[in-house]
Amino acid sequence: MSQYRMAERDQALSMWVPRTHLGKLVQEGKITSISDIFSEGIKIQESEIVDVLLPNLTTEVLNINLVQKQTDAGERSRFKAIVALGNVDGYIGLGGGKAKQVRNAIEKATINAKLNIFPVRRGCGSWECGCGQPHSLPFRVKGKCGSVAVEIIPGPRGLGLVAGEYSKIILKLAGIKDCWTRSFGSTRTVSSSTYSTFEALKGTHRIVTPSDWVR
Questions:
Q1: Which ranges constitute the DSSP H helices of 116-186?
Q2: If you ran DSSP here, which 8-state letter would residue 40 be given?
Q3: CB within 8 A of 213, min separation 6: which ones?
Q4: What are 42-83's pLDDT values in tens digits?
Q5: In this structure, are strands 179-184 and 161-162 parallel, antiparallel, or unpaired?
Q6: Per-residue pLDDT tens for 98-153?
Q7: Quick check: 149 and 182 in contact, CB under 8 A?
Q8: First to last CA, the chain
Q9: Could you give the CA distance from residue 163 to residue 35 in angstroms, rounded to a whole number?
């Protein structure tokens, strides 16, 4: 993050007035870890909460399109942006936003991505490796959006990310270093491809593993 962006964020946080009970607890310092929020199943409704608890997020603008809508007054043109962000250590967010100007569309998409952030369970689920390090996924996961379906398969250390352009960005932001991916459907559709990968990563918390039994 550039110094200009950091200064903007710090200024916004200094003027932040929490609207939710969770936001007040974060501002007062009673909640200092974002993992505590997800362990309690609380929904994040203010993007400033993510700014406080995860300050070192990396943001990537995946796509910007010009969309048009026919109204009674004629055609209305707006820009649609898709933004992904993550800390490259187990947290990923994806969001979209529309506005008349590109900058406003990116800002809306960034806020939406922060509200949709969630933890990704990492592990070593490849039978070829078994190192026990969190460099990949613990098991196969699948995600679907529109006509596109994506399957992420754990890979051994040193494999890298065998994935498409946009899926690779999301996996890298989530902290996944080695995996295979399989895609089905109209993969040229950027929004469907990115959101299907996003939904697949969400699936890492839909299965209870033996490590969770101990907890």
A1: 165-174
A2: T
A3: none
A4: 899 999 999 889 988 999 999 999 988 877 777 888 999 999
A5: parallel
A6: 999 999 999 999 999 999 999 999 988 888 887 888 899 999 999 999 889 999 99
A7: no
A8: 36
A9: 28
Q: Which domains does the chain have, with CATH numbers?
A: 1-55 (no CATH), 141-209 (3.30.230.10)
CA distance 194 to 188: 10
Cβ–Cβ under 8 Å, residues 187 and 159: no
* Amino acid type, 204: T
DSSP state for residue 123 in the 8-state scheme:
B
- Alpha carbons 121 and 140: distance in angstroms, whole number: 12
The token duo for 84 is: 């992904």
Q: How far is residue 98's CA from residue 170's CA, in Å, rounded to a whole number?
A: 21
DSSP bridge pairs for 168: none
Report how far residue 102's alpha carbon sits from residue 106's, in angstroms, rounded to the nearest whole number: 6
The pTM of the full predicted model, rounded to 2 decimals, is: 0.88
